[in-house]
Amino acid sequence: PKMKEERCLQAALLCLGVLCCSQGLAAERPGRARPSLHGHRDKGKEGQVLHRSKRGWVWNQFFVIEEYTGPDPVLVGRLHSDIDSGDGNIKYILSGEGAGIIFVIDDKSGNIHATKTLDREERAQYTLTAQAVDRNTNRPLEPPSEFIVKVQDINDNPPEFLHENYHANVPERSNVGTSVIQVTASDADDPTYGNSAKLVYSILEGQPYFSVEAQTGIIRTALPNMDREAKEEYHVVIQAKDMGGHMGGLSGTTKVTITLTDVNDNPPKFPQSVYQMSVSEAAVPGEEVGRVKAKDPDIGENGLVAYSIIDGDGMDMFEITTDYETQEGVVKLKKTLDYETKKSYSLKVEAANVHIDPKFISNGPFKDTVTVKIAVEDADEPPVFLKPSYIFEVQENAASGTVVGKVHAKDPDAANSAIRYSIDRHTDLERYFVINAEDGNIKTIKTLDREEMAWHNISVFAVEVHKQHQEAKVPVAIKVIDVNDNAPKFAAAYEAFVCENARSNQQFITISADDKDDSANGPRFIFSLPPEIIHNPNFTLRDNR
Ligand SMILES: *[C@@H]1O[C@H](CO)[C@@H](O)[C@H](O)[C@H]1NC(C)=O
Ligand SMILES: CC(=O)N[C@H]1CO[C@H](CO)[C@@H](O)[C@@H]1O
Ligand SMILES: [Ca+2]
What's a GO biological-process term for it (predicted)? Predict the structure, then answer.
């Protein structure tokens, strides 16, 4: 009831003024302070009087409070003509927007009532026409006049944010006061009247990390050095309150999820100071030896790490590459190792961020180093011949059992196991040779004929006594040295003819010979006539040397 009383009083104060003139209508806009006021105060109902003066109708605006829910229709105002003497001869007629439906007029008293609750946010004003006619003749007594009923705002709408939820990003470690996002609320109430739509923003949740500007709704960072690696997401609740934020105002809230985005504020760090790795001396170059990983809590390119070997006695033997998928440094073998030569290596490996933000250079250096110790493991290696190949010589026709030469192989492993030799039988099908399994001496077991086979190219195996799968093979070329064991032979059986009375010294045949032995034991040949014709004066032989 108290509230109702206040509203009625408010309505009563919103009255209508009238000025007069002799002819026609004069309009005046008195605003909220009215120069002439005829307030009629009936019991419990208030209204305004639209007055007729000698100068005709002067209208003003009627005001009716919105959302009025009293028991009786609310009195909007009252039409009154100066020529109305109160005898009931004048009839007031209302037409226009809402006439007869929302607004009804008592045609005798001129009182206008609103029959329905009005909502300013739905419709803020109605244009109506007032007319005064003679009740008996219906003759207009005044020219019709338009007037407006304005629906007076009350604060019946809370502020509403444009979005129920907002999402925003701001880089971690931003300076205090960095703008994050602007949230905006709207209020359906009349922004031109009172404070019903005057909004003030405040932060309900999210302090001390963020703040909001009361007038603009701009959210800013409020704490220095916020660290994404410590906390990435913040839930902020912003309130908008009307009535300028004062008590009794209506409010609305919105949730803002703020995510800190990453900056490169953390250097990579190895979790340990030494890595131990091992690799077999049998490993081939390019083989992976092991991996190291420096941890970087940053993400994306801020966490990218590249690895390099910056020092150590293994710089020539090993290399490191970066596996960008796993962010690991991959140590690989560059050259073949030999356990018997060097049993361990040491590397100094550096991990460095690829992208460095100059703003955070003081958090650096953005790199770290670690020692990688690599042990070379002894591999079970096959025997090794002292030479990659052997060439021996043996005279043809030499007695079976003649020594051709000696091969020698060694087990390179620390175990240095004993070696056994054998001839690859596929390379000595005729079995010209044998080898002493223990000392590697090769001997003939047949006489050799250079003219039949000048080279015997065979292969010799060496195996470890206890690990027969560890086998090596070496080529052994045996050259058969020539012995002059072949007489020259005439190339053909010669037959020659010579005419009688041939001249003396006439050449009538040339003969030649060849020899199976090699050049040292072959030509030049010496030709001579056999003794039985050596004294025959009729023929001579000349050596064509
Ligand atoms: C055997 O080896 C020697 C020396 O490597 C080579 O000159 C010769 O041509 C080889 N003979 C055969 C039949 O392979
Ligand atoms: C030894 C020999 O046969 N000599 C002969 C050489 O030629 C003359 C003339 O034809 C002969 O009379 C020889 O007997
Ligand atoms: Ca980093």
Answer: calcium-dependent cell-cell adhesion via plasma membrane cell adhesion molecules
